[in-house]
Amino acid sequence: MAGTEAGRDVGAGAGLAATPGRAVQEDRAGAAGRPAAAHRTPERAELAAFLRAMRARLGPEDVGLPATDRRRTPGLRRQEVAQLAAVSIDWYIRLEQGRVGTPGAAVLDALATALRLSEAERRHLHVIARGEAPVTGHIPARVGTSLRMLLDGMPLLPAYVLDARLDIRAHNAAAEALFGTDFGTGDQDNLARMLFLDTPVAAMQLDWAKVARETVGNLRANLARQRDDDGLRAVIGELHAHSPQFAAWWADHTVRERGHGSKRLAHPTVGEITVRYDALAAPGESGLRLVAVTPADAAAEQALRTIVAERSAALARPGSRAIVA
């Protein structure tokens, strides 16, 4: 994909770790040498209890260690967890006693690996230890049957599903009626590309600057959460290389995650209409969002009905192609 070099620069500018192994070593070394906390706070007590519970549910055989002796209490020993995570045993003992300050993100990831935590448990560990969710890599998400049924069950409301790359993963018939028959396919399969490259969807936006700038902010926020997603980097690199306006807005480090709002569109059949949009998180941990477009006033409602009816009539004619989500 075009803009590979720009994509590398973009990634570096977003603060991506170029040498994660070294970062882990430095984090572990810092954690091991950090002085003990003076007070045992409720937050540290919760972290200590969580670590003890996770350790108690594992046996040596679960983590590849030999089970050569009888144990008076279930679970791994503290020194075994410290060994697996490559941290100081003294530091880990203090951590489980609630006598350590805020651990680094890399050492928490090492503990999560040592304790065989699930992704949900790893995230919980970061939240209770640092008060923030960890950075995650890209996990391809599937648009489930129920989500597709929800799209198709809104015949008068244009709706589509986006992932972190702003790829359009599915859409309904009303979305094609509003945005055009090629919406979600070919070179119009990504919302950011449609806005910053020369496409009919970009031409429809009467509030283009507002919508496009918001999209840049969404991409930057998504990249911070999914730094290892090469596909996301590629989208950003391509836009950085081909759109001077995107490059300028990316350089100012705008972060906007607005999940709702309104915008004006110029439709070739019904003229100017004002619509609202809401981005709703899909259930589970897929990272998908369902975007629903709704009329802002009575005129927009009638316009949407008109274009959906015209699209349905066109599809009913012989030789018309079916909608592919």
Characterization of the model:
A hairpin with a 3-residue loop joins strand 3 and strand 4. Helices cover 50% and strands 10% of the residues. Helix 1 packs across helix 13 (230-242), helix 6 (105-114) runs antiparallel to helix 7 (119-130) and helix 13 crosses helix 14 (244-251). It is built from 15 helices and five strands. By secondary structure, it is an alpha+beta fold. The protein has helices at 4-13, 20-33, 42-56, 78-85, 89-96, 105-114, 119-130, 145-152, 173-179, 191-196, 200-204, 208-225, 230-242, 244-251, 298-316, and strands at 159-162, 168-171, 260-267, 271-281, 289-295. A five-stranded antiparallel sheet has the order 2-1-5-4-3, with helices on both faces.
Number of strands: 5
| Side-by-side strand order of the widest sheet | 2-1-5-4-3
Question: If you compute it from the alpha carbons, what radius of gyration comes out, rounded to the nearest whole angstrom?
Answer: 25 Å
Order of helices and strands: HHHHHHHHEEHHHHHHEEEH
- What's the number of helices? 15
Which class best fits the helix and strand makeup?
Answer: alpha+beta
Approximate shape? elongated
Largest sheet descriptor: 5 strands, antiparallel
Helix content: 40-55%
Spans where pLDDT lies below 50 across 5 or more residues:
1-9, 11-38
Task: Give the terminus-to-terminus CA distance.
Answer: 23 Å
Q: Averaged pLDDT, please?
A: 81
Strand content: 5-15%
